[in-house]
Design brief:
By secondary structure, the protein is α+β, with helices and mostly antiparallel strands. Helices cover 25% and strands 18% of the residues.
Length: 138
């Protein structure tokens, strides 16, 4: 299903033109308009899902092969020194467009991209709480 007021639905389905690196029946991969680095691209499913949690499993299973294919092409073609895949869910996590997408971010020596965090320490209390959630075979 498409969502009427969703910009990425319109881009993914070709209603709004975009710099397209890859397209198949289910996905479009486009260049980000405000790239973190040269070649920053976005993997967009054509079907609307707000985020990872509402993405159908069949679509989720195809995201990584598509990301791998296009990221590999960028990695080799742009002589990248590294590569980040980033996928934000929720405003606090940096999501600004509420149509699932995966960022493909080429990395270059001395670039100024920042996808880091300050490492914490896993406490016993947190570990017990999280392990008690279970879900090994969800
Ligand atoms: P988020 O912050 O939701 O993880 O990522 C949204 C990304 O979409 C941002 O990197 C932003 O630059 C990009 N973006 C937002 N609107 C458009 C658009 O209309 N076209 C393209 N190509 N990228 C967009
Ligand atoms: Zn959408």
């Amino acid at each position: 299903m498409k969502k009427d007021d969703c910009i990425f639905c319109k881009i993914a389905n070709g209603e709004i033109p975009s710099a397209t690196l890859y397209e198949d029946d289910d996905f479009r991969v486009i260049l980000d308009l405000n790239p973190a680095s040269k070649g920053h691209a976005l993997v967009l499913p054509k079907e609307h899902a707000d985020d990872l949690f509402s993405l159908p499993d069949e679509t989720a299973a195809r995201v990584l092969p598509v990301a791998k294919k296009v990221a590999g092409r960028l990695y080799r073609g742009l002589n990248c020194d590294g590569f980040n895949l980033v996928q934000n869910n929720g405003e606090i996590a940096g999501q600004t467009v509420f149509h699932f997408h995966m960022h493909l971010i080429p990395r270059y020596l001395k670039d100024t991209v920042n996808v880091g965090w300050k490492p914490g320490t896993l406490t016993e209390e947190d570990k017990e709480e999280i392990l008690a959630l279970g879900g090994e075979n969800v």
